[in-house]
Design a protein that fits this description.
Blueprint (H helix, E strand, L loop, with lengths): L2 H15 L3 H11 L8 E2 H8 L6 H13 L3 E6 L2 E6 L1 H14 L10 E7 L4 H14 L2 E4 L2 E5 L3 H11 L5 E7 L3 H14 L2 H23 L6 H19 L15 H27 L1 E2 L2 E2 L21
Antiparallel strand pairs: 1-3, 2-3, 4-6, 4-7, 5-6, 8-9
């Protein structure tokens, strides 16, 4: 079987394990469209996602749902319809991007942020809990949520967005003493889904490691397939990473697979970057024509600009 066919078979198999059309669209907008001027024509969404097996009807339905849920905004120019991330979605993307595309895996610090909701209105509590969970917070005890102190800006943005700056107490602290650390580690293992997360990372590594071997042997796929592999990889990695609490190293099993997964994603992204960009600017469109070239910020992802990937 030719290399290109092997890659396409891999893509088809992985897409079957992936989630719905709306979720894949969110990945496409966050990973790619946001770096090419923010807007894209509906026809290009159909073109770009068709090889994943998504029908035109499914994509149209998914886009409609994302607009309805304030994830996308829309505009019409003549008979064509164009889409971009909403301000709400941009805020979510920026938070996720800080983790997904960082040059280093999760922080090894032992400083924790504890959030205690005090005056949160009843009609906002459920939304606030979901936002905290999305940021990586987990229940510490009744009425308190803990997360490593790695990204205060994301928490600040969430509190401002929900109007809760004066409704919660935010504490910065460290776990004191070996006994407390042991209790915390037990809490993490039993209630924070660490074993499930580890299994997800291992499955991801088993699937994507062979690509590095093939790429290193010079068996690079076409520009379109590089585009598909990049979107699919980030989609799968994003879904795992959002469940990762970014625990300090002493709370994790030895040789934590999450660190290896992050390194692998960075290497694959660097190898796929230029070809996938070429495909996007040559085949996908916005209201001005072909998508513009990527922004300078794109080459800061995984420190691509220091890996001599930027042209």
């Amino acid at each position: 079987m030719a290399s290109e066919e092997i890659y396409l078979k891999f893509i088809n198999q992985r897409v079957e394990k992936s989630s719905s059309g709306p979720s894949m669209l969110v990945t496409l907008f966050g990973d790619l469209v946001s770096q090419h001027g923010n807007w894209i024509w509906l026809g290009s969404l159909i073109t770009g996602l068709k090889p994943f097996g998504y029908s035109e009807r499914l994509i149209r339905t998914s886009v409609f749902r994302l607009v309805k849920n304030d994830w996308l905004i829309t505009k019409k120019v003549g008979r064509r319809t164009y889409y971009a991330l909403s301000e709400t979605a941009k805020a979510h993307h920026d938070k996720a991007a800080r983790r997904i595309y960082s040059s280093e895996p999760s922080s090894l610090a032992d400083a924790w942020t504890v959030v205690v909701p005090i005056f949160v209105p009843d009609d906002v509590k459920e939304t606030f809990k979901k936002q905290l969970h999305w940021l990586g917070f987990s229940p510490l005890t009744n009425g308190a949520y803990a997360h490593l102190e790695v990204d205060k800006q994301s928490l600040e943005d969430t509190l401002l967005e929900l109007g809760l700056k004066d409704a919660v107490i935010v504490l910065s602290c460290k776990v004191d003493g070996s006994h407390s650390k042991n209790v915390f580690k037990r809490l993490v293992k039993e209630y924070w889904g660490l074993e499930t997360l580890e299994a997800s990372y291992k499955e991801f590594l088993d699937a994507y490691r062979p690509l590095i071997i093939k790429f290193n042997k010079g068996k690079m796929p076409s520009d379109e397939t590089c585009f598909l592999l990049r979107i699919l990889m980030i989609h799968e990695y994003r879904r795992i990473l959002l469940k990762d609490k970014q625990l300090p190293e002493d709370m994790l099993p030895n040789g934590w697979v999450g660190f290896e997964a992050h390194e692998l994603v960075g290497k694959l992204y660097a190898q796929l970057a230029q070809a996938s960009v070429n495909y996007a600017v040559e085949n996908l469109e916005n209201a001005q024509g072909h998508l513009p070239y990527v922004s300078a910020k794109f080459w800061q992802r995984f420190l691509l600009n220091k890996l001599s990937v930027e042209p």
